[in-house]
TrEMBL record:
Belongs to the aldo/keto reductase family. PANTHER family: 2,5-DIKETO-D-GLUCONIC ACID REDUCTASE. It comes from Paenibacillus azoreducens. This is Oxidoreductase YtbE. The record marks K83 as: Lowers pKa of active site Tyr. Residues 31-266 form the NADP-dependent oxidoreductase domain. The keyword Oxidoreductase applies.
Length: 280
């Protein structure tokens, strides 16, 4: 379990990844995005997560470069993730998509590159491309996103390299208990997108009561729950006070009873697409 904002989780290939980061899903290109990335870096965030389909890699890259300069830190101190989109899931097209992402971000390499969705019949070729990029030293680590157990089993049948990460929708209404257990068994780190369920949980009575007990916000309680479960989490915000608040979760600890109450909120309910029934 991470102890502070810069603390890392060691992935199965030895790469150290911050256990807490900033997500930028649905944040459009422009000053707000650039500023959010800079603000996050200023306040100690060391992981930034984007994707080709978000259409904001250029702004993310600019925010990273300006943020590094203003904070007086080097590129190697910030962990950058992007993802290959469904339309590019082929061997050559995935390599080309990686090149495009690097160019837009203005970076020489990515720390982590993920297959965004498990498109049947396509993700194995894309994975071969990721393995090539990794073996050539062009990316520090490779993983997947939105893969369910059967997708992972199918991928690992033929893969030379196991994914280091599976980034999935995960929050108290979708706890992903079985998937997390499978990933732990195989040394794959679970990472949560939409950890706050896009705001749908912020007035939940159980969470509100727990938050009041610690004089914390519901968002802080949920993010603390992630951390204590050993899940990497990447909440999204563009507001400075919220970026700071989201990370202020290392001065309290939820009890086993609190954790159980939150786990019991599970309904296997998604706010995003079902990986098995996604209209690609």
């Amino acid at each position: 379990m991470i102890k502070n904002l810069q603390d890392t989780v060691t992935l199965h290939n030895g790469v150290k990844m911050p256990g807490f980061g900033l997500g930028v899903f649905k944040v459009e290109e422009g000053p707000e995005l650039i500023n959010a990335v800079k603000v996050a870096i200023k306040h100690g965030y060391r992981s930034i997560d984007t994707a080709a389909i978000y259409g904001n890699e250029e702004g993310v890259g600019q925010g990273i470069r300006e943020g590094l300069q203003e904070a007086g830190i080097t590129r190697g101190e910030v962990f950058v993730t992007s993802k290959v989109w469904n339309a590019d899931l082929g061997y050559e097209s995935t390599i080309a998509a990686y090149e495009t992402s690097l160019k837009k971000l203005g970076l020489e390499y990515l720390d982590l590159y993920l297959i965004h969705w498990p498109v049947e019949g396509k993700y194995k070729e894309a994975w071969r491309a990721l393995e090539t990029l990794y073996k050539e030293g062009r990316v520090k680590a490779i993983g997947v996103s939105n893969f369910q157990i059967h997708h992972l089993e199918n991928l690992m049948k033929d893969a030379e390299i196991k994914p280091v990460i599976n980034q999935v929708e995960c929050h108290p209404r979708l706890t992903q208990k079985e998937l997390q257990a499978f990933c732990e068994k195989h040394g794959i780190q679970l990472e949560a997108w939409s950890p706050l369920m896009q705001g749908e949980l912020l007035d939940n009575e159980v969470l509100t009561a727990i938050a009041a007990k610690y004089n914390k916000s519901v968002a802080q309680v949920i993010l603390r729950w992630d951390v204590q479960k050993g899940i990497i989490t990447i909440p999204k915000s563009t507001k400075e006070h919220r970026i700071v608040e989201n990370a202020a979760i290392f001065d309290f600890e939820l009890t086993k009873e609190d954790m159980k109450l939150i786990d019991e909120l599970n309904q296997n309910h998604r706010v995003g697409p079902d990986p098995d029934n996604f209209d690609f």
